[in-house]
Design goal:
Helices cover 39% and strands 17% of the residues. The protein has 274 residues and is an alpha/beta fold.
């Protein structure tokens, strides 16, 4: 069984890692778009066109499910993609884990791309699931691009800028771009002690397996991982090796649980004053 994952860049790594951990027997088709990246700063029509082109190629290659581990693409075109391919091919999108954060946190910040931050989709998500809690919308220009390029200096600068614009009363930060979990340790270091990060990659992977009626883990075989780069056969870009999950996927084995970012990641609390 083949599952396709579509994103402009390394945002698909976390969800791919979870699928490779939970169901390593699946054949995975990773469709990245280095020629069109980053999607987070592109127009809606551009993102939609690139997403549909990749999805059509995935179906032609035998994909039995399409996963969009990209918040920007989800908020821009997931409804149109489902209308085109479902019910024959399930389409699973990605949305920020606002509901989970609202169930626990007091003040919430959503870190996301410029396009996602300004989208009506995110506004509706916050209205529906924030339970009336204050939500700060924090755009993170340049962060996804820095992650794709493995430029940790630029990533650190973008993280520091976003942290400075995050209200001090936000004890919960929702990672509203699938690239951001790759630098979760650096994000936590930039925020006050005790801040909790919320990510949706594990939930998206588990939802994919539910849609495929594959809720039981089966590790009897090891599936393949094929990569398509803007329509061309290729390999996982070497920049992915900068991240533990990227290195694990390149090794083509089962991705170990310990290198994956959990749905809820909390920084250590500051030691009490004595």
């Amino acid at each position: 069984m083949t599952v396709a994952l579509i994103d402009s860049g390394f945002g698909l790594l976390s969800t791919t890692g979870w699928l490779r951990h939970l169901a390593p027997e699946l054949d995975l088709l990773l469709l990245l778009d280095p020629d069109g990246a980053p999607w987070g700063s592109r127009t809606a029509s551009f993102v939609t066109d690139r997403l549909f082109t990749a999805a059509q190629l995935a179906v032609q290659r035998g994909a039995e499910a399409i996963v969009v581990p990209c918040n920007t693409a989800t908020v821009t075109a997931i409804d149109a993609l489902r209308e085109r391919f479902e019910p024959r091919v399930p389409v699973i999108g990605t949305v920020p884990a606002v509901k989970s954060a609202a169930a626990i946190g007091q003040g919430i910040a959503v870190w996301a791309t410029v396009r996602t931050t300004s989208s009506d989709y995110q506004d509706r998500l916050i209205a529906d699931y924030a339970n009336g809690r204050p939500v700060a919308r924090v755009a993170c220009p340049g962060l996804a691009e820095a992650i794709d390029h493995g430029d940790m200096a630029a990533a650190t600068e973008a993280i520091a800028d976003a942290a400075e614009r995050t209200p001090q009363n936000c004890d919960s930060v929702v990672l509203g771009c699938t690239h951001y979990p790759l630098v979760a340790p650096e994000i936590l270091q930039s925020l006050p002690a005790g801040t909790t990060l919320y990510d949706s990659a594990e939930a998206v992977a588990r939802q994919t397996l539910r849609r495929l009626d594959r809720t039981r883990e089966s590790h009897s075989t090891m599936g393949s991982i094929d990569v398509v780069l803007s329509g061309r056969r290729g390999n996982l870009p070497t920049g992915a090796h900068a991240y533990p999950v990227g290195r694990a996927l390149a090794a083509a084995g089962r991705v170990p649980r310990e290198i994956l970012i959990s749905a809820v990641t909390r920084s250590p609390m500051a030691a009490p004053a004595i």
